[in-house]
Design a protein that fits this description.
The protein has 253 residues and is an alpha+beta fold. Helices cover 43% and strands 25% of the residues. It has two domains: 12-58; 61-252, Penicillin-binding protein 2a (Domain 2) (Alpha-Beta Complex). It has helices at residues 2-8, 11-46, 48-57, 99-110, 114-125, 141-150, 174-177, 185-193, 210-214, 216-220, and strands at 59-65, 71-73, 79-91, 133-136, 157-166, 179-182, 205-208, 224-230, 236-243, 250-252. The strands form three sheets. Strands 2, 3, 4, 5 and 10 form a five-stranded mixed β-sheet that branches. A hairpin with a 5-residue loop joins strand 8 (224-230) and strand 9. It is a single-pass membrane protein.
Length: 253
């Protein structure tokens, strides 16, 4: 019986069926490789300039967010220190090919003075060229609006909001309340020694003397961060991740 079955089988037909199946499988493999090669050519050759531009121009940055500084009240709840929101013009020197031309073009827009420019150049020489340097602080609403209209002309230049302390009683309580001032080299060394330098990445000022200095840790808060994608103009393309800052509410004395 096994011999009879073997004689009945058509070996040539089975061989042809196998060849057809192998040919179809081989053809499918060739088609798949062809699709991959065409797609690879499209990405590597035809779209090369597009993706190279995106790769070169876009970058991921960690932007520190300054916390709201705590307020100071007396025992009757009367504020001795208040926070007000102001705006400043920031410049990243590494993104500016001609600094002199930039300053000349910005002068009529934000009303730069010789003192503004001199202070900016001094700060620029003491700061990494890849970090933002303040060109002008306390911008008016008109100056902010004028720059916003012309911002596309100035890659590497941005307007940033910040908070500044206001003392309702002025010099009358200055010896008690103290003041906040620009972080200097001595402050940086002390912060680095105490492992607190990173917490001041978004701050320009620190409490000095009086209550502002004594309760600095309690008043400062914790710096937050934004992980963002920026284009070659320094503009934020999209927000990837955010850790909000933790501000201090108030200190009563």
């Amino acid at each position: 019986m096994p011999l009879l079955r073997d004689e009945i089988r058509d070996h040539s037909a089975e061989e042809m069926l196998f060849i057809r199946r192998a040919a179809i499988a081989f053809l499918l493999v060739v088609v798949c490789f062809g699709v991959l090669i065409v797609n690879l050519y499209h990405l590597q050759v035809e779209q090369h300039d597009f993706y190279q531009t995106r790769s070169n121009q876009n970058d991921i940055k960690m932007l520190p967010i300054a916390p709201s500084r705590g307020l100071i009240f007396d025992r009757n709840g009367i504020p001795l220190v208040q926070n007000i929101t102001l705006y400043r013009l920031q410049v990243i020197p590494s993104k500016i090919p001609d600094m002199a031309a930039l300053l000349q073009q910005l002068t009529p827009i934000v009303d730069l003075t010789p003192d503004d420019i001199a202070s900016f150049r001094d700060d620029m020489h003491h700061t990494s060229r890849y970090k933002a340097v303040t060109l002008k602080s306390d911008l008016s609403d008109v100056q902010v609006a004028r720059f916003a209209v012309n911002e596309f002309r100035f890659p590497g230049v941005t307007v940033e909001s910040y908070q500044q302390q206001e003392y309702p009683y002025g010099a009358e309580l200055a010896h008690v309340v103290g003041y906040v001032s620009k972080i200097n080299d001595s402050d940086l060394q002390r912060l680095a020694k105490n492992g607190e330098e990173e917490n001041y990445a978004a701050d320009r000022n620190i409490g000095k003397q009086g209550i502002e200095g004594y309760y600095e840790k309690a008043l400062h808060g914790t710096t937050g961060y934004q992980e963002v994608e920026v284009d070659n103009h320094g503009r934020v393309v999209r927000l990837l991740k955010e850790m909000p800052p933790v501000g201090r509410k108030k200190t009563s004395i």
